[in-house]
Design a protein that fits this description.
The chain has helices spanning 8-40, 45-52, 59-74, 81-96, 119-129, 175-225, 240-295, 302-334, 346-364, 383-399, 460-470; strands at residues 100-104, 110-113, 135-140, 143-149, 156-161, 342-345, 366-372, 377-381, 406-414, 419-426, 474-479, 485-492, 495-496. The chain is of the alpha+beta class. Strands 2-1-5-4-3 form a five-stranded antiparallel beta sheet, sandwiched between helices. A five-stranded mixed beta sheet has the order 7-9-10-12-11. Strands 6-8-13 form a three-stranded antiparallel beta sheet. A hairpin with a 5-residue loop joins strand 1 and strand 2 (110-113). The longest helix has 56 residues, at 240-295. It is rod-shaped, with a radius of gyration of 55 Å.
Length: 497
Amino acid sequence: MHIRDLSIRKRLLLSNCIMIFIPVAFMLVMSMALFLSLQFGNVNRASIMSFIWPESGPTLATQFELTRLRVRSDSWKPDNKRLERSLLEAADHLGELGYRVAIFKPDGSLYFQTHLTDGRRTLEEAMEGAPAGRGAISWGDRGLFFHYRSEETGLVLAAAGEIPIVWDGEYIDVSSKELLKQAFTVICIIVTLLTIVVGLYLSRWLSRQIIGPLEELQATASNIARGNLDKPVPVCSEDEIGRTMQAFETARVQLKAARETRERYDRSRKELIAGISHDLRTPLTKIEGYAYGLRDGIANTTEKKGHYVKMIIDTAENMGQLVRELFLFSKLDLGQVEYHWEKVDLAAYLRDYVEDQAEHFQREGLSLSFRSELTAVSVTLDRLQMSRIVGNILGNSLKYRTAALGHELITLSRAGAGKVELAFTDDGPGVPEAALTRIFESFYRTDKARTNPAMGSGLGLAVVKQLVEGMHGTIRAENVDPHGLKISIVIPSEEEK
């Protein structure tokens, strides 16, 4: 998961936490470093305290080291190097402050003495300066005198020095405190600058994370508003902006599909109007011509008059058939055709249809034959609409045959689990490859000029497609060798034998 996939709210919270965390972490690191250096380093803490609180002079530092020395002597163990080192460090620090220090073991032997001093002499001075019990301290104008015997370890401590409790003239150098204030000021400035730098970086980072995608979204919205639906919307994250851009991409795809559908419908509507206009104008012209012939006396014999009247009637019937097909197609397109479903043995149905209609189509110029891989197969269909499907396909083959007698082979076979394929194969001229996907459109004819009215209106296969889809089936067309057209219909079946 990338950071860009986090929600904007979480990213803002994260950036605010980072802005707080980095300065605090910087202060903690510095404090920890100082603490560790004091805790584990051989640092004279008394000198540091005098540096921080110079007003106290050496008093606070001396008291601190004396206390430390006494506590270390109570916990001293001869075989513990760490405790031994800690005790000697306290003694060294007192020596650095100007005091003479001596430490004696329980057996009275000298354990430590300040460099260039006499440990025995230091103990005598301490006992004379502070003559009391097992431990005493005296600190006045003459200086400091301290001695102590540990009941836990038996160590004897002694310290002496001529440093008075208050320096002469009561003058104290506080330059170290000013230096400390300056150091604290520098640290505050560094922390402030660090906070500003981190804030600016995070602001720029958030700007790239949020403003950039918003600008892309604005550009995409402008493209969509201008009707440019071909450029995909880039989706680079899963946050609120990413989901919004995904919604824009979905809207763009849907708008593009709707526009293409509308353009296709507009094209079909124009072709429909042009087809209706042409296919009605031609028979109306014929009727008008024959009617004028009767009125003007051109048909001057009984035979001619009968022929004219017959032509007017035949043309009117063809127009009526066109209107009925157009009305049926409109109802199918609007979903207003009611289907009367029943279970039918499709193999038996087609066998009976061919037997009943073979003679009729033979007279018209089309020889029918039927072949089935299935003895019986049950499908749910509407008998009337199925009859229209078969009749329209056969009628189309009859109109487009190239020989005096055309041939039509109807086959029934399996098309996978729960499906059967009904195929109609003729030996006509076929259709151009580019027209195979369009022959099921309304009023589409390969004869673009529609110069031959006998070829029909172009509604027959469009009606077939609508009826097949109404029966939850699919239809397709393909050319066959050496010539001819095969129309295949796949519909659901309930059982196969």
